[in-house]
Structure formats: C-alpha cells, structure tokens
Write a structure and sequence with these properties.
alpha+beta; two-stranded antiparallel ribbon; single chain; 21% strand
Length: 56
Amino acid sequence: MKYLTITLVAAFLVGCASTMTTAGVGQTYNHVGAKVTSPNEPNWYLMKHTDPSVSV
C-alpha cells in the first residue's frame, strides 16, 4: 500500500510538471487586453490563471 501511494503521488507530480509551456524569450502575450512581455532570459514558463482581472 505504501508503494502504491508513493507511485500515485509521483505520477501526479510528473503530470503537473509536464503541462507547463515555456515562454518565448522577449515574446509579447495578450492577457485580458493588457500586453505582457516575457523576460529576455530562457527557461521561464507560462502559467494558467483563473482570475481574468487585471490590476493597473
């Protein structure tokens, strides 16, 4: 039972980590009417969001 639990937790974590999309270097994205530019460095990721509001 212990190994089954560890295996399920590991599979869940791998599944979550593999769904992230890499952001383009210096690429512009639109978010609810706002233009957002990703950093000029590699290895940044786009994250999903649930709150559609933008604070200025």
